[in-house]
Design goal:
By secondary structure, the chain is α+β, with helices and mostly antiparallel strands. It folds into three domains: 5-51; 68-163; 176-332, Glucose Permease (Domain IIA), CATH 2.70.70.10. The protein is 40% helix and 24% strand. It has six helices and 14 strands. The radius of gyration is 44 Å and the shape is rod-shaped. The termini are far apart.
């Protein structure tokens, strides 16, 4: 049966007659049904949301998923807090123990805690979430990843340097610069503030003074390379500075003569010059300094004056014998310029 036709019973003839629908009436009826449906739907949502205060099933589902993801991110942030604390502990041990032991400079805070400046790489997180938790989490992850990378590189440097621990033990200035025979020397001035022998004012003494007669041998207190040899008329006089590596340097001042040249490698117990009274000096003595990372430190914390003169002499003799063997080998000849 066609949808555009209607059959109506004629009561006089008792015959069904065909009555066709006009196009206008069909369109009007369709529009009317559509409008009525919209009204009914609007009425339903108005009653459901405004009157009853209920939310649509889709909204409830989205809120449920949002709550689940928020909970997951909160758990993730608590884990990030734990990781951040653990990393901070590693950083503290790295700076205060590992790097300090090997004479390495601490990693600057601006390097460890560097952020991500410039272009806003997190702009796509804007407007997601009312509290910006997703953006904060993404930033924390990136910062923690960079901190971990910096710490990993630092441990790589420490591990590489630790393989040279044996070299470090021989480089640290760990012996007195003169034979600790009480009949040869006396400690005339210690490290710290004292009354200046020339001005009488309180000044900081940056080393230790060993008062002894001119001409006594002065020995390198650790393996290293001669950094400088120079003379200061109103200062240290004849002086030698040895770079031991690992952040350590030593200075031997007011010498009578110098037995090394710049760039020369020296061993612990090897003679670098003879004690004297050159420069600004109130009497014959050796001024001995230890520098660590550019700062003066108390030399008394590094040497042991309780070592017997015999033990000291044996060590010096062994060093001299080893140096002589190296010098005699054609492939290890060193410059003799300025030697005693």
């Amino acid at each position: 049966m066609s949808k555009n036709k209607r059959y109506i019973l004629n009561p006089r003839t008792l015959v069904y007659e065909v009555k066709k629908r006009s196009r206008v009436s069909r369109v009007a009826r369709t529009v009317m049904l559509f409008l009525v449906s919209l009204c009914m739907a609007g009425l339903y949502f108005w009653l459901y949301g405004s009157v009853l205060g209920l939310e649509s099933p889709k909204t409830l589902l989205l809120k449920k998923k949002n709550a689940e993801w928020s909970s997951r991110m909160e758990v993730m942030n608590r884990q990030l807090d734990e990781y951040d604390e653990a990393l901070a502990s590693l950083q503290m041990r790295d700076d205060d123990i590992y790097r300090s032991i090997f004479g390495m400079d601490e990693i600057a805070p601006e390097v460890r805690n560097a952020g991500f400046g410039g272009v806003n790489r997190y702009s796509h997180y804007e407007g997601i979430g009312s509290n910006g938790l997703l953006k904060k989490t993404a930033i924390r992850l990136d910062v923690l990843t960079k901190k971990t990378y910096v710490q990993s590189r630092s441990f790589d440097e420490v591990a590489l340097l630790s393989k040279r621990a044996g070299d470090m033990a021989s480089c640290i200035p760990a012996i007195p610069p003169v034979n600790p025979d009480p009949s040869i020397y006396r400690l005339s001035s210690s490290f710290g503030y004292r009354s200046d022998p020339f001005t009488g004012r309180s000044t900081r003494h940056t080393g230790v003074d060993f008062a002894l007669k001119p001409g006594n041998p002065v020995y390198a207190t650790g393996d290293g390379v001669v950094e400088s040899v120079k003379f200061e008329f109103f200062g240290y006089g004849n002086q030698v500075v040895v770079d031991h590596g690992f952040g350590y340097k030593t200075r031997y001042a007011h010498l009578k003569s110098v037995g090394v040249v710049e760039g020369m490698k020296v061993k612990r117990g090897e003679c670098v010059g003879l004690s004297g009274n050159s420069g600004r000096s109130s009497g014959p003595h050796l001024h001995y300094e230890v520098l660590y990372k550019g700062s003066h430190v108390n030399p008394a914390n590094y040497y042991d004056l309780s070592i017997t003169p015999e033990e000291y002499s044996t060590m010096v003799q062994n060093t001299a014998d080893a140096s002589e063997k190296i010098t005699l080998h054609p492939s290890h000849r060193r410059k003799d310029k300025g030697r005693i």
